[in-house]
Amino acid sequence: MAPQDQATVVAQATPPGEGGIAVVRLSGPRALSIAARVFRSRGFPDRVESHRAMYGKLIRPLSPETLNSPEGRDVIDHVLALPLLGPRSYTGEDTVEFFCHGGRVVASSVVAACCAAGAVAAGPGEFTRRAFLNGKISLDQAEAVADLIHAGDETAARAAIAQLRGGFDRELDRIERPLLELLSEIEGSLEFAADEDMTVDEQRVVAVLRSACRDTASLLDMAPAGRLLRDGIQVVLTGPPNVGKSSLFNALLEEPRAIVDETPGTTRDVVSARLVRGGRTFVLHDTAGLHASADPVERKGMDRTRDMVNQADIVLHLVSAEEHPPAHPASPGAGPVLNSDDVSPPVVVVITKCDLAESLAEEEESPGSRLVKTSSSSGAGLNELWSVLEGVASGYRIAEAVSLGVVINDRHRAKLSSSLTELTELVRLVEEGNVGQEITASMLAGILAELGEVSGRVFTEHVLAAVFGRFCVGK
Ligand SMILES: Nc1nc2c(ncn2[C@@H]2O[C@H](COP(=O)(O)OP(=O)(O)OP(=O)(O)O)[C@@H](O)[C@H]2O)c(=O)[nH]1
Ligand SMILES: [Mg+2]
């Protein structure tokens, strides 16, 4: 264990600023003895009971200069101290949490007092890092803690809690366990190979590897859901100038965020806004209208529109009812400015300004089609549009990710996809009969090490720095 990990660390666990209560957390092998220097209460620390709060005075630690001063001068606050003795604490170490008054001064004075008594200021994510290193949680569970703290909506919070409760670890175990069993079988057979022919049946090897491929691919399929849970569902509004993009953007947000004007080319840059609907975060992006233009500024705006479309989870392609029937309403890529090749996300065609053309042909709306007629002026069709948006969002397997507790991030995705590549390669080699069981065993061990990095069964300092760098101080 690194020396820093043996230090006793302290940090404010609640956000800085004014509030009723602030919590300062002290954790490490000397937590109780350091607490004893700053906390005065009858029975502390001799008669400490884990998980039982004690009321007392938090004082600046006595130094030779202050030794003879009246104790009252050094009182910082009246606090509750909650001792949580290891291993029954978040970090697995002895911990004392001080509940003091909130505000700008008190909590930082408590931290300073603990530091003067021998504690060290904790770095970002230090407490969770210790929980991981002490075997209290896996690495993906530690990441779930960060996801929970940063959750922007109820669905993301539910997914993070499910992951924190070990959902992702169970799914990883389903992949790893048969591979581990296979590896030990092959290694066992290699030991006895000198005496008799005990090689593991090739068909069995292929079957186990294929099943691992399927399960890994299925986890990887949930990567977009992970991104949507963390960053929200990116909805990009596109269409020709003046079609009513900014008006629809404002109508969906129910507030006048973007400028609306009858002059075509009003919106020149991307305007973004986030809202939570049905427990899910949607991020709406209003964009510059797409048309053939020689104006360099407008062209830059249109480049940004195309960039946004490429990053979108859902594209709303707007067509005005005034220009009804639109050239190709079902093919939003039509026209010289947005090729259909550019549009890979699901596209919903929105006919706007329906109040101006009441007699729209009915035949365009077939059941299940992604075509919605709206009017931002009257509000008609907005609920239908939201239903369509929620339906398209469901296609991203968010509900499954939440119920399984699997929120895949970039780190997991990189490890899972390289494991899948190696698994696929190993299947090919075994099927072609090009590989002996010794090489199969060594490749399998490599794949298991790669998979182990997802849960943190195998880890490096580099990985830990990347994971815990996302945390705030005090967590
Ligand atoms: N009657 C009616 N007018 C609308 C509706 N939606 C937008 N408009 C009008 O159409 C004009 C253009 O609206 P915008 O929302 O600015 O259009 P835009 O697509 O953002 O235009 P650019 O930013 O120039 O690309 C404005 O005068 C709006 O008042 C609608 O549903 N009904
Ligand atoms: Mg606009």
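^ guanosine-5'-triphosphate complex. Confidence is low (pLDDT under 50) at residues 1-5, 327-343. Residues 167-192 form the longest helix (26 residues).
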